[in-house]
Structures are given as C-alpha cells and as structure tokens.
TrEMBL record:
Complex formation: Homodimer.
Pfam family, one: TIM
Catalytic activity: D-glyceraldehyde 3-phosphate = dihydroxyacetone phosphate
PANTHER family xrefs: TRIOSEPHOSPHATE ISOMERASE (PTHR21139:SF42)
Entry-linked Gene3D superfamilies: Aldolase class I
Alphabetic keyword roster: Cytoplasm, Gluconeogenesis, Glycolysis, Isomerase
Species this chain originates from: Halomonas kalidii
Entry superkingdom: Bacteria
Keyword Isomerase: yes
Name by which UniProt lists this protein: Triosephosphate isomerase
Metabolic or biological pathway: Carbohydrate biosynthesis; gluconeogenesis; Carbohydrate degradation; glycolysis; D-glyceraldehyde 3-phosphate from glycerone phosphate: step 1/1
Protein EC: 5.3.1.1
SUPFAM superfamilies, A to Z: Triosephosphate isomerase (TIM)
C-alpha cells in the first residue's frame, strides 16, 4: 500500500481564534484534502488547539501541537503536558523545531524525553531535525542531522516507530531569510536519513518530510522525489489557499499518481 503524502503547516505564533476559525472553514470545504493520496495536517498555537480540533473533527485533516513538556502534570508553570495535548483532541505533536532549539535552548536529550512521552500518550511525534549553515559549511550536515534523529529516537520501542514522523528542516532554509534547499540537496539528505534510521516493525521506512521555505513554485520538484514523504510548510501555507495550492501541485508531481 502506498503511503499518503503528508502536507501540513505550523502556524507558529500566529492567528487569533477568529482567524483560526476562518482558516478551518476553508479547509473544511476543500475536497482535495479528502483525497486518500494526501494526509493533511495543521499545527495551530495552543490557544486555538481545541477549537481547531473541533472544527476539523469530521475531516481527515490531522491536528497537532507545536511543543509540549514531557511530564504528564505538575509544577511546570507555562508548560503544556502530553495529556493536555491529547485531551484537546490532537493527533500530532511537533517536537524540536529549530526555533525551539535556538530560542528556548531545547536539547536533543529533552526532545528524546518528549518523543517518548508523546508516544506513551498515543500521539504522533513530528520530530524536526536540521543543520545550521555553519554545520553545513563545515561538512557536518549529515552527521548533525543523523545525530539529532538517533538521540530523539533513543529508547523508543520498535512497535512505536510506526507513529513517528521526521521533518528535515535545514535551519538555513527556514523563514523569511531562508534559502530553500534544492530538490537535489533535500533528496540527498533524505536518503542519508533513511539509511540511518530504523524501520518500523513491518519494515517500512519512517516518513521523512521536508520543510524550509516550501512554496508553490518549489513544491512540485520536492514532491517528485520518492524519498520525500511530505512537505511541512510555514509562511506559504498561513493562508488556506496557499496550503491547498501546494497540496494540489505536490500531488500532481508525486510519482505514481
Ligand atoms: P517556512 O517555515 O516555510 O516559513 O520557511 C518552515 C518551518 O519552520 O517549518
């Protein structure tokens, strides 16, 4: 069975409840997202998480949180637990985004604790990995990314791996000042990651998505590579039309579709 192609967005620290509701209303009516060859997902800020889960509950679109603590509950002011994420109705939790690693000092060891906690709670961790421009210039890109993946997955039982998603997001490619990776570079790194990662208990490779300045112009060549299992989009999907345009073009470019 071919796996659906993942297409999703994190809104980062954007959107009020009203804006979130408008976005969900547009997705709700989009036939494209009901195509079984696609698996859409939206990752709103915590404030909109339960509303977005409710608004998209009768669609196949999955919803995720942007981060969480590893503990189930306790004296961790300002944090959100895996239990709370699940309680909102979310399926996915994004972990280890480079903005969290850089601005909030998140370490690989902390991400590993969060991955295990997410899996224990029945969530799908979407583990973000990626090298900085400096690591790339020094020739350490693949070593960095593979180390991040290995530490994030340390101690995860093989039966749980089928719920793990990886997003390769080179730090130099993300955001306003980012340069998107070429399909050639992204494909090369995706193959390195695939070689280094364990497979699921059924022998399937873990899905590795690409993220970092994905836009309507570059999505087709990225989606055309069989080793890229999906696209994780920021700015270009903050309007629903952007997400849908990318989904449409990616699906058309997907091998075997
Ligand atoms: P961008 O963000 O598409 O705006 O570069 C990607 C990300 O941070 O996941």
């Amino acid at each position: 069975m071919t796996m659906p192609f993942w297409i999703g967005t994190s809104w980062k620290m954007n959107k009020t409840l009203g804006e979130a509701a408008d976005y969900c209303a547009a997705l709700h009516d989009a036939e494209l997202l009901r195509d079984p060859r696609l698996q859409g997902f939206v990752i709103p800020p915590f404030t909109a998480l339960s509303e977005v889960c409710r608004a998209l509950a009768d669609t196949p679109v999955m919803v995720g949180a942007q981060n969480m603590h590893w503990a189930e509950q306790g004296a961790f002011t300002g944090e959100i637990s895996p239990l709370m994420v699940r309680d909102c109705g979310a399926d996915i939790v994004e972990l280890g985004h480079s903005e969290r690693r850089e601005s909030f000092n998140e370490t690989d060891a902390a991400i590993n604790r969060k991955v295990k906690a997410a899996l224990a709670q029945g969530l799908r961790p979407l583990i973000c990995v990626g090298e900085t421009a400096e690591e790339k210039a020094l020739g350490a890109a693949a070593d960095t990314v593979i180390r991040q993946c290995r530490i994030a997955l340390g101690g995860v039982p093989v039966e749980a791996l089928e719920r793990v998603l990886i997003a390769y997001e080179p730090v130099w490619a993300i955001g306003e000042h980012g340069t998107p990776a070429t399909a050639e570079d992204a494909g090369w790194m995706h193959r390195r990651i695939r070689e280094a990662l364990p497979t699921t208990a059924q022998g399937a490779p873990l899905p590795v998505l690409y993220g970092g300045s994905v836009n309507p112009d570059n999505c087709a060549e990225l989606a055309a590579l069989p080793e890229i299992a999906g696209l994780f989009i920021g700015r270009s999907a903050w309007r629903p039309e952007g997400l849908l345009r990318i989904a449409e073009r990616a699906l058309a470019a997907r091998p075997g579709t």
